[in-house]
Amino acid sequence: MLEIKNLYVSINDKPILKGVNLKIEKGEIHALMGPNGSGKSTLSFVLMGHPKYKITKGEIFFEGKNITEINPDERARLGMFLCFQYPTEIQGVSLFNFLKTSYNSINNEKISSMEFREIMKDKMKLLGVEQKFIERYLNEGFSGGEKKRGEILQMAVLNPKISILDETDSGLDIDSLKIVSNGINKVSNSENSILLITHYKRILKYIKPKFVHVMIDGKIVLSGDEKLADELEENGYNFLKEKVK
Amino acid sequence: MNNCTVNINNNYEEKYGWNVKIDSINETNIGLSENTINEISKIKNENKENKWINEFRLKSLKHFQERKMPTWGGNLSNINFNNIIYYKKFVDKKDNWNKLPIKIKETFDKLGIPEAEKNILAGTSAQFDSEIVYHKIREDLKKQGVIFVDPDEGLQKYPHIFKKYFGTVVPYSDNKFAALNSAVFSGGSFIYIPKNVEVKMPLQAYFRINSENIGQFERTLIIADEGSKVHYIEGCTASVYSKDSLHSAIVEIIALPNSHVRYTTLQNWSKNVYNLVTKRAVAYENAIVEWVDANIGSSLTMKYPSVIMKGEGAKADILSVAFAGKNQHQDTGAKVIHLASNTTSKITAKSVSKDGGKTTYRGKLYVPKKSDNVKSSVRCDALLLDEISKTDTYPYNNIENNNAVITHEATVGKIGEEELFYLRSRGLTEEMALNMIVTGFFDVFAKEIPLEYAIEFNRLIQLEMIGAVG
Ligand SMILES: Nc1ncnc2c1ncn2[C@@H]1O[C@H](COP(=O)(O)OP(=O)(O)OP(=O)(O)O)[C@@H](O)[C@H]1O
Ligand SMILES: [Mg+2]
Fold first, then answer.
1. What's the number of domains chain A is made of?
2. Domain coverage including residue B39
3. A108 lines ligand 1 (CB under 6 A)
């Protein structure tokens, strides 16, 4: 479904990603871990086509198609979704109106507010959000946890083929973590894939990855199964740095 | 994106900028002189019982001729006052759309005025060049004593109220264009809301400029008696021509104690119109005056809605939004004069400039020493959509009383890359994302006006945004 080949990325001429290789098949969940500043968010932005980052080498394929050069909105229409680590606030635009526009654009439809309200109903329930919440301006004044809930609500409504979840678990209290994880699991099936970026094992209790990768200094240095996450939690990244030397 | 090379003017032309060919029944010769004034007075029958109006006009003309052009604000040097027709009338006023000449009726049909009248308005008037051609107010309001007529009728039928207030808020000598309006004014509204009457649905006046080379000089006078409440809405459009037209209006509001007046404007002139307007209100004890003002059209607008708070506890709320595209300058703002204690004002100004357009915020805040416990907050946000567009802010504050609580915030921004990316990552094209950000930026305005107008407003903004993607 998604294949990253030897990807090198710079920002302001500073190299951040230094040869990333990753392959995610349909129906798979992959977790990506790694110390602060190692390049995880950079990778997620680049996968979604952020214009700020410059790809100096390498390619990205989605469902066999080379998407290295295409626009973020085209990627969204192909079925890619990024759940932001820090979702952006947009003044004066309600979450509901925004998501309706997004839904219509991605699915090439023109459904009305009334119809869209129907589509939203279940998903709102799934994520435990009220009408008031979706009428608020997009992410404006949302608490950290509310922002994440909003992101997963969007994911649930848009139903993408691949979701890149950048630290969706950070900032969530225990109950929210459960609700959000449950939301993710409801969307997840054998037809779609997830790249889950996280620092903590606790979300892996709810969402079971097939593979765990570790990124250090712009490279995936180690890949394994769930046990790798346990090992990391126990020993930290230093032991790993030693190990891969 | 090269598939959207739609021209804004073409779009405006199609939706608002067409014109109809129809013969006038009265018009003055091109240019302005004492003769022009006397001619207008004659047509309006002002030479008999209301001779003072004719004298007022002549006095104003003299002042206009002597007064220098303002040297601040926008570029006024291309206005040729000799090239303008100052008065043009097509038909006597009717209270039935079907009695109007078909071309005039069709004009307002196409602009959706009869439709709005049916759905949401308590009273409607429509002006075509110099005169009101249609006027109607709901019977029940009439019975309650609400007056909503044009100034000619106001002067004839209610001379005492008219004379008591006319020209008291904006004197003819206020500025050059106030003098011009005072000389040649025609059309507009005269409104009186009796004590404790609340007009629940809005009253609306729509102003249409159809002819080439014309000047439109309507005059609006609103008196809200004690404890009354009214919402007045005005909209406007004009036919597109290569030659300039001039629109110069005066609006005076008298908000008597405990009254509440809201005045909403959706200005959408064609880009060949100079829009030079003086709008001012006086607010007495505990009265509330709200100006809700949007400027999207015109080549140059100079307009600074003002509230003079004369009574204790009076409140002013001014919301002014502007969009300046190619070859446009929106020089707008607000003035609040706190002449009494415990008065409060709030100014919110938002502007977007694009394609080299220019927006200016000009504000004035005055708190004299005698006014205690004044609160005022001013917020101006400007958004620049490209490198060639401009915005300026000129707030003049004169605070003589130390216990006034004043806040002032101003921001100038560009559309953020992160905002754009966030929206685009959710499948919105660059164009859709820009539209959404700009619409959101103006939401403070859209949510203040009735839904029908908000839809219209958002559509106008979207029309202006066409071609925003480089
Ligand atoms: N806009 C930018 N300008 C300069 N440096 C940047 C920019 N964006 C990212 N970087 C740098 O790139 C490196 C990788 O950052 P990135 O956000 O991808 O890390 P991360 O792995 O997501 O970290 P965290 O776990 O803290 O979220 C960091 O050194 C960061 O400072
Ligand atoms: Mg990160």
1. 1
2. 20-425
3. no
